[in-house]
Amino acid sequence: MARKLTIKLACGSGFCFGVKKALRMAEDAAENHRGRIYTYGAIIHNPQVVAQLEEKGVAEIYSLRGLRRGDVLIISAHGSSPEILRKAKTKGVSIIDATCPFVARGHDFISLLYKKGYEIIIIGDRDHREVAGLLACSAGRGKVVTSGKEVKKRLKKSRVRKIGVVCQTTQRTELLLEVVAALLPKAQELRVFNTICDATRRRQDSARELAVCVDVMLIVGGRNSANTQRLLEICKEECRGSYLIEVAGEIKASWLRTATKIGITGGASTPRDLIDDVIKKLRNMGCDLKFRSEK
Ligand code: SF4
Asked: What separation in Å is there between the alpha carbon of 95 and the centre of ligand 1?
């Protein structure tokens, strides 16, 4: 007789507001513009979605070199640097700016800190495009850190007059607190902007709640997605059987051998149909599934 497995889906799984908006803008461009259409880097960090857009004529580029007048350049939800925008404009390229408003808010805070003479600390993944954009807005006054330990190494001066902090939108609150605690003894004045977006915070909280009470946790999303990797970290802290998969075909029967409860969550750039494929695949693996979606 088939074993009974319960599947629970974490609330808020799948596309966030910023990703939906960026994709809508890219799809509109594909429908309405005749010329060549590019995104500067991946529009979102999900290879399947990027491949679908490419089929519609929206290609990914990492350099502006080949662009010419009349081309359309879409700036992704992660934003870009002021320098890229300026260069694209001088080439006569039409720009569609799909920067998420929560990312743009971080740019504004950095500009404010710069004008007011703060040393700027950016908490985030050094090679992430959102962080590169934030750093560019600091006009050379920003430092990227990834831990409290790094603060101690990189801020050599025992006391800095004014320090301002901005965080990559998809970081964990625990990391923000750790860095702020390390900075506090070094600053006469410490100004912190909590720029972790609400969608990220809610998604992380609900993934953790679910991971606590299941045997296997499947995190569906791009391996190149910062917010999906963070969900994996969080789930691993609560559930040893946590696995990141991009598509349903990656599920291994051995993961489920002794499980009775399976949790599913998806990154901000994971389309709902990829999550539905995972649910379907679990059904096809011969288990009798009782599907329950979290509120
Ligand atoms: S995760 Fe947050 S900041 Fe990033 S695109 Fe989505 S809503 Fe915007």
From this structure: 20
Ligand 1 atom showing the smallest separation from residue 19 Cα: 5
**What are the angstrom distances between the C-alpha of 20 and each of 131, 202, 259, 270?**
21, 17, 34, 10
* pLDDT at residue 1 greater than cutoff 50: no
pLDDT tens figures, 234-243 = 999 999 999 9
User: Alpha-carbon distance 62 to 218, whole Å?
Assistant: 31
Whole-model pTM: value is 0.88
Q: Give the least confident one: 136-140, 156-160, 244-248.
A: 156-160
> Could you say which architecture CATH assigns to the domain 17-100?
3-Layer(aba) Sandwich (3.40)
Q: Does domain 4-14+198-293 have CATH number 3.40.1010.20?
A: yes
Active site residues: 130
Considering only CA atoms, which of 172, 168, 191 is closest in space to residue 180?
A: 191
CB-based pocket (< 6 A), ligand 1:
16-19, 77, 100, 102-103, 169-170, 197, 199-200, 227, 268
